[in-house]
Amino acid sequence: GAGVSQSPSNKVTEKGKDVELRCDPISGHTALYWYRQSLGQGLEFLIYFQGNSAPDKSGLPSDRFSAERTGGSVSTLTIQRTQQEDSAVYLCASSLSGGTTGELFFGEGSRLTVL
Amino acid sequence: SQQGEEDPQALSIQEGENATMNCSYKTSINNLQWYRQNSGRGLVHLILIRSNEREKHSGRLRVTLDTSKKSSSLLITASRAADTASYFCATDANSGGSNYKLTFGKGTLLTVNP
């Protein structure tokens, strides 16, 4: 597609359930990023992929969070046993390369609400 | 922790006025970027300035970078109501080897009143 696509756009779930968030980056972009944005806050870095490997997972808040990327393209962020503090907008971005000059292209985000 | 911090947190001006937002950061950078976010949307890249550049222009945007003070400013001239949005600075940080990630500040919420 023309831009970064994320699904679902909105997800309401009950505490304790697992959720999967999907990101389709721009075709040909080797770098993919996940960020989390709580209401009125800045972006919290979660994880970064270069191709299928994740050189930096330092931002994942706990072992309930995991992410994978297959075929150098689609990425899935999985949150197990969701908690209310996981409620946020999860933003995915891709860039042509993971170098220092990469402009990031963002999706519209997946808004997660944990009841 | 946040690498970049913007100030002010919120700014309200009248249409036609200029808006200045500042960003400070902590560690050495290769480049600094500014992004804009409309409410409920994703971020859109505005401008990138490299560490060896001091000033850059793009339309009504002017960005300055002072690496000695570890700070940057974004100036929007002749503001319009459509400029109402949150503005974020982002700095790169080495993630090991040749890998880098962008870290974002908390943003400045700009409101331009018609």
Order of helices and strands of chain B: EEEEEEEEEEE
Shape of chain A: globular
For this structure, the quaternary state is: heterodimer
Distance between the termini of chain B: 36 Å
- The share of residues in helices of chain B is under 10%
**Cα-to-Cα separation, first versus last residue of chain A:** 33 Å
Report the biggest beta sheet of chain A as strand number plus sense, adding barrel if it closes: 7 strands, mixed
Q: Approximately how much beta-strand content do the residues of chain B carry?
A: over 45%
Mean pLDDT of chain A: 91
Strand content of chain A: over 45%
Could you give a short description of this structure?
The complex is a heterodimer of chains A (115) and B (114). Chain A has 115 residues and is mainly β.
Description of the molecule:
The complex is a heterodimer of chains A (115) and B (114). Chain A has 115 residues and is mainly β. Chain A is built from no helices and 11 strands. Chain A has strands at residues 5-7, 10-13, 19-24, 31-37, 43-50, 53-56, 65-69, 75-79, 88-95, 105-106, 110-114. In chain A, strands 2, 4, 5, 6, 9, 10 and 11 form a 7-stranded mixed sheet that branches. The model of chain A has no long low-confidence stretch (mean pLDDT 91). Chain B has 114 residues and is an all-beta fold. Chain B contains no helices and 11 strands. The model of chain B has no long low-confidence stretch (mean pLDDT 90). At the A-B interface, strand 5 and strand 10 of A face strand 4, strand 5, strand 9 and strand 10 of B.
Mind sketching the topology for me?
The complex is a heterodimer of chains A (115) and B (114).
Chain A: E1 5-7, E2 10-13, E3 19-24, E4 31-37, E5 43-50, E6 53-56, E7 65-69, E8 75-79, E9 88-95, E10 105-106, E11 110-114
Parallel strand pairs in A: 2-11
Antiparallel strand pairs in A: 1-3, 3-8, 4-5, 4-9, 5-6, 7-8, 9-10, 9-11
Chain B: E1 4-7, E2 10-14, E3 19-25, E4 31-37, E5 43-50, E6 55-58, E7 61-66, E8 71-76, E9 85-96, E10 99-104, E11 108-113
Parallel strand pairs in B: 2-11
Antiparallel strand pairs in B: 1-3, 3-8, 4-5, 4-9, 6-7, 7-8, 9-10, 9-11
